[in-house]
Amino acid sequence: MKKASNIALAAVLMAGLLAGCGGKGGNEADQGTSSTLVNGKYDPPVTITIGKQQDENAGKYFEGESLNDNVLTRWGVENLGIKIETTLLGGDAAQYNNKLRLALTGSEQLPNVIPVYDTMLMNDLIQSGRVKEITEDIKNYMPDRLKEIYKQYPSTFNPVIHEGKVYGMAISPVLTEGQVMLIRQDWLDNLGLQAPTTIEEFEQVIAAFTNDDPDGNNKKDTYGFTFSGKDSYNTGWVSDPVMIFSAYTGKHIPSSWQLDEESGKLVYGSVDEGNKEALATLRDWYSKGYLNKELATQGAWDAIADFAEGKAGIIVGRPWLYDSVAAVETNIAGAKISAYPTIDGVTGDRTYQSAQLNDGVFMFSKDFNNMEAFFLYYDKLYDAAFGTGDFQYGYAQGYDYDIVNDEVVFDPKKFNKPMDSLQMVGKMAFTKNTPAIGDAGKNFYDLAQGVEPNTGPLMAANAAKETAKAGFVISYENRETLLPTLFNGPPTKTMQSNWEQLTTMEKETYTKIIYGNEPLEAFDQFVKQWHEKGGDQITEEVNEWYSNASKVDVMSSMGLN
Amino acid sequence: MLCIPSLVFVLIFAYGPMVGLVMAFQDYKPWLGLTGSTWIGLDNFERIFQYEGATQAIVNTLIIAVSKIVVGIIVPIVMAILLSEVRNIGIKKSVQTLVYLPHFLSWVTVAGMMIDILGLDGGINHILTSLFGTEPIYFLGDPSTFRATIVISDLWKNFGFGMIVYLATIAGIDPSYYEAAEIDGATRRQQIWHVTLPCMLPMIIVIATLNLGSILDAGFDQIFNLYNPLVYSTGDIIDTYVYRSSLLNGQYGFGTAVGLFKSVVSLILIVIAYRLAYKLANYRIF
Q1: Which region is the signal sequence (chain A) (predicted)?
Q2: DSSP class of residue A66?
């Protein structure tokens, strides 16, 4: 019996192996060049294969729909004659990267369009010679309205430039909205306080939130400020403490490479002297109970829980964070959240935070020869952001918008067929994030200036909740505090061997100082060791990369000037 | 004849991939393949020992893994013996099932629960403070308690699985031994000591030997989901160290070198254990 099942198992596995070997030739028929573009539609239809990292919002489909057969893929075939087919699929970032690496060994075919989220992998792909150089393609085929967008973000090309040639392009580059400070307005009101704008005022507020019973239940069960220090002291999205560091270091925020004005060189933010004062402050606050006691063990998403449960009074995050913590307003009578700008630094300057310009880049397989079709499709996806064409309100009625009694609605609960949450069609078949235009919440700012919500994107923005809207307006007004890291190339040689040791040391030192497990002087020791154990070498390599990157002009050869 | 599929299976899936081990001696680039990548001798192995973080990780791995192996053998044996003495079938079966269940949970889930339960405001600390009036203990953030937390939670999750093997062994002991012991006037305790344990010994040796092979596996899933910068000094193990320093950067050669290093150490230990078992207990495993 056992032997028999072994034979069966072996047979199945052998069959699997053979099928795997046979799979190689499969895609070639799709590359036919005989297809022509007639009235904006390919006939016969062309197929573009793509790799996809399935993020949590993109994995949900209506019954009967799937990754390769949904409202958007059908729309593509019917209207453009372009069939998008996902042939390389990965769950989380690590799994997706591993699949791409395997494809590099030649055991699997690379899809035509390859979204890549890791700078090392971008470099490997370029080195392998299996991705296409697209300098000319961008010049010839990129539609003008997209060129206008890419012109604004020249630095996003840095990771995909090799010897003056361009091997990829950012996925929907846009200055993503920055973080705002969410505060329990009812607590401020109960204690007769104003929202803090400086570090001293911030300290007074969090001290009062901890000691003066802001929720009036005669129990000491609240505290001031929740954030996460598990993975980084510059999380960049929610539960971020970076504002406190920037108050003392200015533009040299932790984990970021910024220009030192005196030397004209890039320097690493985490070793800036100002961090010592920031750590001293946080250490003091921690010992007084003003901070999340478990900030070292809670990741960024876990650290929002204390705010959502009404234990903490202040949290910093992107404006949409409001939707994730709004439960506190329904669960606790009288609770009210307001959005405020982050505080100012000790010198009176604003505090800075990390900017995100793009999430990954598109790269293209060497044998993909239909860039025109790619750009046609990609441009159409931008219709939703521009509020034009087929997608003027959203991608599909009944999915991400609906029309009820001649009125466009974006609240999924008010749809003709009510749903719990929107179907994010923009994420379904092509990009991980829906393409967006306009800096950091500009639509919300325009609305606040009294612009009529007469286009799809403005109507969608207008449907957001008041506090979130206010947050987006604040983030737009403070968009000059958003700093992209100036080093976005592949890890340098010394980084590959030493970077991990240095970041481990950094995280350990920062956290132990805040917890009071090590004296404040440990920071000086850390800075000294950082420089000695490869940090100086890395700084040199990073600056070498930077001066090369700023010397090469690829923008004009792509027609983006 | 009937062996052939199994042999083919082993050749393809166990011996075939071993070719990849040469990566450990190369600066491997996937697009150049095994034949095209540059040979760099033992550089990858040197890197394992180059940083203090790495030696600390090896020490942590050994301490955590050895503690896990020791308690992971003793506790299931004790529990199996205790349970086999329970007469009520209902209680026996339900205890067996209950302790076996956590084995099926993934560490991601368990870690999420543990972070809540073991937090400063969590259930365990709540009980401890109300019973003893002590200060809350930061189980996951204190280097001195982290290893114990790891070992005990692993034990809780997995001892039910080990126990079942021993229960089966006990059930397989010839009842005439017990009858003979009873006739000679042995008490229950003496029966356990002189009949049950000796009969379990071969199984204990097999399992202990096999476990020795995992002496450098301190449990990546578990630690990766539970550790944080506060406990790197006692909690960072080889696997998490390698994950952070090589896999995230696509350093194939280094990763393979560590894997090979671990396998060689395990192989040596298994061979030693095998010899010892033969010499001391006169028992041949294979």
Answers
A1: 1-19
A2: B
Name the least confident of A310-324, A352-366, A373-387, A427-441.
A427-441
Residue type, B252: Y
Q: What pLDDT sits at residue B286?
A: 64
Task: Name the residue in chain A with its Cα closest to that of B115.
Answer: A297
Q: Does B29 touch chain A (CB under 8 A)?
A: yes
Cβ pair A124:B250 closer than 8 A: yes
pLDDT confidence of residue A15: 42
All residues of chain B having their beta carbon less than 8 Å from the beta carbon of residue A283 are none
| Chain B (247-276) residues lying within 8 Å, Cβ to Cβ, of chain A | 247-251
Which residue pairs from A518-525 have beta carbons closer than 8 angstroms and sit at least 24 positions apart in sequence? A520/A276, A520/A279, A520/A280, A520/A283, A523/A275, A523/A276, A523/A279, A524/A276
Chain B residue with CA closest to A11: the answer is B5
- Say whether both A282 and A384 belong to one domain: no
Q: What is the torsional sign of CA A90, A91, A93, A95?
A: negative
Quick one: pLDDT at residue A26? Answer: 37
Per the CB < 8 Å rule, is B230 touching A512? Answer: yes
Model confidence at A82: pLDDT above 60: yes
Cβ contact, residue pair A11, B141, below 8 Å: no
CB contact under 8 A, A130 and B8: no
pLDDT tens per residue, range A519-536:
999 999 999 999 999 999
CB contact under 8 A, B120 and A10: no
Query: Could you tell me if A284 lies within 8 Å of chain B, comparing CB atoms?
Result: no
Residue A430 has pLDDT above 80, yes or no: no
Q: What is the mean pLDDT of residues B77-92?
A: 90
**Chain B touched by A286 (CB under 8 Å):** no
- pLDDT at position A521 is 96
pLDDT of residue A27: 41
Same domain, A141 and A185: no
d(CA A336, CA A353): 26
> Would B25 be classed as within a structural domain?
no
Q: Which residue of B has its CA nearest to A501?
A: B53
Tell which of B142, B228, B236 to mutate to test the A interface (max A CBs under 10 Å).
B228
- Domain of A67 in residue numbering reads as 27-171+362-429
* Band of residue A257 on the pLDDT scale cut at 50, 70, 90: very high
Q: Do A244 and A336 reside in the same domain of the chain?
A: yes
Q: Is the pLDDT of residue B60 over 80?
A: yes
Using left for φ > 0, alpha for ψ between -120 and 50, and beta otherwise, residue A356 falls in beta
A44: contact with B, CB 8 A cutoff = no
Give the Cα separation of A182 and A474 in Å (integer). 11
What the block records as the tokens of A463 is 């449907």
Q: Token pair 């001195």 is at which residue?
A: B144
Query: Last residue of some domain: A465, A494, A523?
Result: A494
How much is the ipTM here? 0.79
The verdict on B16 touching A (C-beta cutoff 8 Å) is: no
Query: In whole angstroms, what is the distance from residue A308 CA to residue A323 CA?
Result: 10
Q: How many domains does chain B have?
A: 1
Question: At A53, phi and psi to the nearest 5?
Answer: -95, 115
Whether the CB-CB separation of B120 and B136 falls below 8 Å is answered with yes
Provide the residue type at A14 as one letter.
M
Minimal C-alpha gap between B9 and chain A (Å): 6
Is the predicted pLDDT of residue B218 greater than 90, yes or no? no
Task: Give the nearest partner residue to B232 out of A124, A302, A504, using CB atoms.
Answer: A504
